[in-house]
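User: Structure tokens for this complex, please. No commentary.
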Amino acid sequence: MSKRRILALVLCVALIPAVALTACSGDKSDASSKIVIGIPQDLEDSLDPHEATAAGTREVLFNVYEGLLKPDPTGDIVPAVASDYSVSVDGFTYSFILRDGVKFHDGTNVEAEDVKYSIEKCAGLTGGQVLIAGLSNIESVEIADKNLIDITLKEPDMDFPAYIANTNAAIIPRSNSKPATNPIGTGPYMYVSRSPQDNIVLKKFDGYWGTPANIEDVTLKIIPNADSIVMNLNGGAVDMFARLTVTQTQQLNDNFEVLEGEMNLVQALYLNNAVKPFDNVDVRRALSYAVDVDNILELTSEKKGFPVGSSMFPAFSKYYIDLSDSYPTDIEKAKELLASAGYPDGFSFSITVPSNYQPHVEAAQVISEQLKKIGVNANIKLVEWNTWLSDVYTARNYEATVIGVDASSLTATAMLDRFVSDAENNFTNYSDPAYDELFAKLYITPGDEERVEIYKELQKNLAENAANVYIQDMAEFVALSDKYEGYTFYPLYVQDFAKLKLKGQ
Amino acid sequence: MKNLMFRIRKNPEMYIGAAIIVVMLAIIICGVIFSPYDPDAMDASAKFADPSPAHPMGCDNFGRDLYARLSIGGATTLFIAVATVFIGVIFGIIIGALTGYYGGVVDEILMRFNDAVLAFPSILLALVFISLFGSGTFKVIISLGILFIPSFARIVRSEFMRCSKLDYVRSARLMGAGDLRIMFVHILPNIIPVLLSSTVIGFNNAVLAEASMSFLGIGVQPPSSSLGRMLSEAQAFLFSEPSYAIITGVTIALIVLGFSLLGDGLKKNA
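Assistant:
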């Protein structure tokens, strides 16, 4: 008996340091706070902000890079690398005053030359191509003083500050020869490393000029398989995941808080307007009549989501007009239109969908089923995200796709410029001279009210010609572990990691 | 009757396997023929409906009848498996017979090529095929079919090598029978028992291969269903609607188990 007691005592004593050690390590992890955030795809396109095209890449780079200006959560444009700016009376020249003491992640100060270099590179003034469509309007970038930059435009453009606030127009050091693999910016987080197809590691930048980030280490874990997201969350491998479906949120355990917002994108069945039969407006209208948006919402998102009828989402309230009733579901009318277009027996086409975006895969399945009613046979082709980017978005080698298109900058123009015939990002190959003419007017119309009118006309044009089968601005569900708080929704497709913090921090 | 009991006791695997397969086939065929539902028809009011007389297995996330989808999906999976094994067996017999019977340089070359194909994990090769030629039911059949050729070719070749030295082949040759006649009229019928059991096992592998390819999203494309595709879709609802995944998973497991037992039993008989 006594032997056992001694043994018990020895064991107890042995346990004390163990307990103390665990407590120690617990303290340590509190001091260096960290969070693991799941993202659906790797940042394959480029880590160079000027080259990045995918929304999923930009939303991450938002934390690493900043432009002269940047968007805030309410949709306003606020100063960032520049502390202030003014516009000349004629609207041709914008003068930016550089903020004092803004540092790049490598420790060097941001100089006027870096700004000139970055803006000129984006605008294609240094010989390369125009990297950001909105900046092609720049005539010249001049260093007026040590901390004063004058940007002169070819035509006055009210949207110019919004283009400058775009993450794509970030200021990068001119000394960095490899921005695509070695990103150096001025944002609240700095890039540490990337393991392709696995993770990206960011670290809080201590020299940040503004409100510093709260969480020290951010690891972005790539989960390309939509089916395993819930398991990763429930299993504790990931603390946060944005843009979940309703079904996914219903399966989360109690350790998560589900936040609801809007994604600020336009999900649609995008049609390649250049290929048969979608070059025929009647065919496109027929599809629009045949697709029942309410049914899609009912089947895929428990009716959450905001039906839209053109390429604009409600968050741009000033410009948005509700066109969601342009094509009420009407099978008979759809059939008539198909017949008049020369397809009385329907036709077959394939919808190419990136398999990592579960909501789009689900919407495509519902659409495929709905189109059967008018004799149209839509096959679904699931592809990897990179294949989608190269085949559909870049090479435009597809018939139709379901995807969400967002605004790359805080302007209504960003939702509409891609439908201009010769726009570089016009992946739907939409081509209508009337649209091009209207769009060109935007640049020469100074009055705000008249401009808003033009934006509305542009949306009507897209709806009237059924450029694509517009579905919805999707409801956004963010799962955030209850250890954290501070998730902030933006009226843009971005994630702001800097506002996240541990509860009680 | 007594005779049957005796046979079952002597080789229970074969009969249990056969019984499982017959039952599964009956369920699938009944569903394909008699189910009143279009397997792709969606019904918002029946989302995740519980099993009921109207929907014997309930419904999936789009309100599609699970029994209708399971039977058409099972049929698709079985069709792919049959076609795959068919390609594998036919080409396997031709290659195996020629190389096993004649031997020589051609045998060496073909068999080394065979080894090379066998050396790769089959899913990896299937992935390569699919990324080269695109996905879809028929491409899955062709890519899996090609992958199945080497294993059959090997079995047939070793049997042909063994048999070509046996007395009955020698006598046939003395009788003046041509090579082709000896190969396909004399030897082939004699190796059928061995071939049959490996065909059944190959069939088993084909069901699993299709299921895993569709599960990975490179096989059958939605909205078409196959057992693997359904399992992959069910995975998203594993926690909220486990019955979807369980029903599909159990179906795959039973089909595989049935063919596996049957294959073992046939091997015992051979």
